[in-house]
Amino acid sequence: MDTKALRKLLDRVSRGSMSPDEATRTLDQDALATGVTLDHSREARSGLPEVVFGPGKSLEQLAEAVRGLAEGGRPALATRVEPVQGKFLLAEFPGSEYHLKSGLFAANFRLNLDGPQPAAGEALVVSAGAADHKVALEALGAARFFGLDAGFVPDVGVAGLHRLASHVEALAKARVVVAVAGMDGALPSVLAGLLPAPVVAVPTSAGYGASFGGVAALLTMLNTCAPGVSVVNIDNGFGAACVAAKIVRSRERH
């Protein structure tokens, strides 16, 4: 149920033309119709707004969720959006943006993920290799959606660590660093040993057989000897952006 319909429902309750029990049944039936119940108070409660997870939802459910979040011109974000879902949402929401590689869909917000990216910012997403870009771009777009000044440093993994040298100054100025790596997953340890900012490590499923779909990188990151590293789930660029946003906002509050 959108805000306009909800206000009409509450107005009927306040005027006495509908009982609270009838209003509750109406709300329950509305949620059951699409299977979508939005959490509009999440940002006030947790500091981050609700974001729509694309997989497992029908096109109608996905559109209903985005519509409810984007009502009144508010920014709305959906993650892991497949091409067929993205095409449908673009038709449903004129002027919106779907970024194929990251799987992000945004309404009333520009992700700016195409073309050259700034290699500086309060939050810096760093990727070990091009195979990690899908996850890294998900983190970058989500971080921007959460209001961070986010930049991107690509392809500086340990196989060619000299590539990191020209970025150390910008990295040292960042308030939080998101390190995205598959294979051996060693990049977050390197960064945490060099930088004062907290490092959010994201293992990816990129790698050969013994990488076990990202488990090897995950275990490497969990077992790092460099202090100041937190680790999110495999391929979870969005989760890393959430952690980064909370770190920056926590420092702002204090």
In brief:
With 254 residues, the protein is an alpha/beta fold. The protein contains ten helices and nine strands.
Structural write-up:
- The chain is α/β, with parallel strands linked by helices and 254 residues long.
- Helices cover 42% and strands 14% of the residues.
- The chain has a 5-stranded parallel sheet, sandwiched between helices. A 4-stranded mixed sheet has the order 1-2-4-3, sandwiched between helices.
- A hairpin with a 4-residue loop joins strand 3 and strand 4 (104-107).
- The protein is elongated and about 70 Å long.
Radius of gyration: 21 Å
Second-tier CATH architecture of the largest domain: 3-Layer(aba) Sandwich
CATH class of the largest domain: Alpha Beta
Class inferred from helices and paired strands: alpha/beta
Note poorly predicted spans. none
> How many E-type strands?
9
Lay out the secondary structure.
Layout: H1 3-15, H2 20-34, H3 42-46, E1 52-53, H4 59-70, E2 76-79, H5 83-92, E3 97-99, E4 104-107, E5 123-127, H6 133-145, E6 150-153, H7 168-173, E7 176-181, H8 187-194, E8 199-203, H9 215-222, E9 229-231, H10 237-253
Parallel strand pairs: 1-2, 5-6, 5-7, 7-8, 8-9
Antiparallel strand pairs: 2-4, 3-4
Main features:
single chain; 254 residues; alpha/beta; Rossmann fold; five-stranded parallel β-sheet; four-stranded mixed β-sheet; 10 helices; elongated
